Amino acid sequence: MLVPDSPALTFESASTDEARGAAEELRRTYGDVGRERADVIVALGGDGHMLETLRSCIDLKKPIYGMNRGTVGFLMNHYRADDLISRIKGAVANSLHPLRMEATTQDGETHRGLAINEVSLYRGSAQAAKIAILIDGKKRMDELVCDGVLVSTPAGSTAYNFSAHGPIIPIGAGVLALTPISPFRPRRWRGALLPHTAEITFVVQRGYKRPVHAVADVQEVHDVEKVVVREDRSVSLTVLYDADHNLEERVLKEQFEP
């Protein structure tokens, strides 16, 4: 991705004092032209704020460079106020493609959501969920009895997916992770890797007695009956990372850390 020699910047911060203070410091040094005129959007906060910024900037089609002023910061670069223009010009561009969720509720309503990390289903009562799984229209599992199940993008594979013992996926691998959450039956099933072109359909069994909710990153839908998930390659989000600490390197490093 070509960044102008003197890119115009805008700074968007999380609501914490640390993030707001960083934004004020950077505006004094580099100015702030606003979203519409900016060549690059600089997000200041943690991973949650980065995801919010990516979602809100989809239609702008502008690259986002994040710096960590939050808690986790896996999706962020290290914070440093000096030499920001050079860092941005030398950054590596990573393209992220989100998941589209279409969830149908028990009362027949359809809700649509976009997920950069994952789409997850989870039980909404004390009883375990019972979910059938279809891949490209073919039933692959008649009944998964579990606390839940999720589909993760490569970018999200180090988040909730990894906590649920799912695999870490390199960014350019062209696959999605299908990962159960506390599976009871089949007890030994640990999930599957699917081509990024796959359409995954979850059908809730006896949802009136065993309610299930669905979440696309932060958008939650209660009492779902069916959820269809697919990657949307028509949407491409550009995230910039320092060359010595890019996203591919972080994903690789995560697989070798104790």
Put simply, the count of helices is 5
Which strand-content bin applies to the residues?
35-45%
Instruction: Kindly provide the name of the CATH class of the largest domain.
Output: Mainly Beta
Summed over residues and divided by their number, the pLDDT gives a mean of 92
In angstroms, what is the radius of gyration?
Answer: 20 Å
Distance between the termini: 34 Å
How many structural domains?
Answer: 2
Examine the coordinates and then state which fold CATH places here, giving the name of the CATH topology of the largest domain: Tumour Suppressor Smad4
Q: Write the CATH homologous superfamily of the largest domain.
A: Probable inorganic polyphosphate/atp-NAD kinase, domain 2
Largest sheet: 11 strands, antiparallel
The CATH architecture of the largest domain can be named as Sandwich
Structural class: alpha+beta
